[in-house]
Amino acid sequence: MDQRDIHHQASVSIVMLQSESAVPPRGLILALDSITVAAIADELARALVGGRVQKVARAEDSTYGLEVYVPGHRHQLALVARQDEPCAYLSSGRVGSGELTPSPILLLMRKHLLGARVMSVVQHGVERVVTLTFGFPSSDVNPAPDRLGSHLVLELIPRFGNLVLTTEAGLILDCEHRVASGPDRIRTLLPRQQYQPPPALGRLTILDVVADDIEAALAGVPLGQVHRALTSAFAGVSPALAKEAVRRAQSSGDPSARGIALALSGLADLWRRRAWQPGVAEADGAVVAAAPYRLTGIGTWRATPSTSVALELSTNRQRRQRPVDIARRAALASLAKRRRAATAKLDSLRRALHAGERAEQLRLDGETVLAHAHTIARGQDRLVADGREVQLDPALSASANAQGLFKRYRKAKAALANVPRLIEETERQIDYLDAQAALIAAAESAEDVRAIAREATQAFRRQSATERQSRRARPLGHLGAPIRVVAPDGTEILVGRSAKQNEQVTFEIGSPDDVWLHARGIPGAHVIIRCGSREPSPETLSLAATLAAKHSASAGDSVVAVDWTRRRHVRRVAGYPGLVTYRDETVVRVSPDSASISRR
User: What is the reported pTM?
Assistant: First the structure.
């Protein structure tokens, strides 16, 4: 991760002022937002409550299937617990099989859920979290009095998707993705801990307001900033829902704040009344979007019998049409494995550093034992003298105990001499891996993903000088040139797509007077505005900042802080390509999806 030497005082907010596009989008839009989760929860409750779980199976990619029998029908519930693309829907076919190696949570789900009835399906307010409650009613013909109820919590939050199994009292039995404690962790998810849901946003929900409230929140907001204003003001409003409100207002001929407020209020009313209108948008015969409300201005709308059918069509489309995601998951899994190893090493080194810092105490303990050796009897297990308490090995003499303490002192001192350097090196390894993960997440093709992954693997390995020399002769893959974008005023903008390209863009192509940009405090691409000593226009700066946001680990956020400075203030960090420090930066805040981009 880039480290800033100086935090600039200025904070500038720059946003592109542009209308929403009404053309078919590139790629697939699956807006798993609060309103979609509400539609899913409604559908699951209608279909499954009262049914009995007959099978629990596992498919690939953190996907599980529950077969729930209700009189006259067997429902197949698909639970997709992938962190990047979580989802839940009633599948048209059986999900998973008994041939895959069981995961720990699968074994626990079979233990606690088989034979249980679905008692309720509840969404947590307007959050993207749904809880399925299971129990064993006494009204059953063969009740199971020794078995207690349980909860299966679906956290359907893209980038943080998870599946958590808890006891009736909320004690975690296991999770698909465990979350350990750490300085940057809001909560932990580990077995035998009490389950804590994701923190609520603490804002008014879109269900609690009327059109006048929405209009007031949009007072003075330019059209290009509407979706950000709405998502910031009201819980339950996603960028996709806000943009649909803008499109509806535009198509009605009233794109004013009042028109947008009325359109969004109408969508919220569908939610209140549970009057879902599920379907998919198609372009060129392929599914490009899915939602529980009619989408306008995106391809051709086709209604579906249920939200589940729409989600299944979209997820099937994703699996067929996105080989880049297959390559991305494999590459990110490999990086995650390396990161876990590096994190374990870092923890070990920090423990060693802590032990090394106690070296002086070991020396004093040894001197205390020698000074009072004449008072120590054979078999004594501790010495209290000179205000110190020293633990002794009763099997050793006083002299041998002292020599053991001095030996530990010398070992701790030696460790203390090397550990700080190793800690710094390991921290850089982790920063490099995080940066590569962000670049892989932003890659647009499977070929690009593989090239970046191979570059990361080679850079991470420690090899001899001979091996490194032979490695230079080997091709890294066909990543191609850095991304080149031409701003409306003709200024060239370059974006690195890998660590080596970041270095190339910044230090080989960029001149000292060019403007350099990077997402603030998070891994991502290096961006150069080739403007020389002149000041870039606000539009060009906004476009370049948006590109930096889009090619960062925060690409899915509604607003991203981006630092910019002159390239002469950027310095390499030894050890790994693409790692830098910088100073004299200014902060701009942009929306990653607000750029109008023209590549040449």
Answer: 0.53
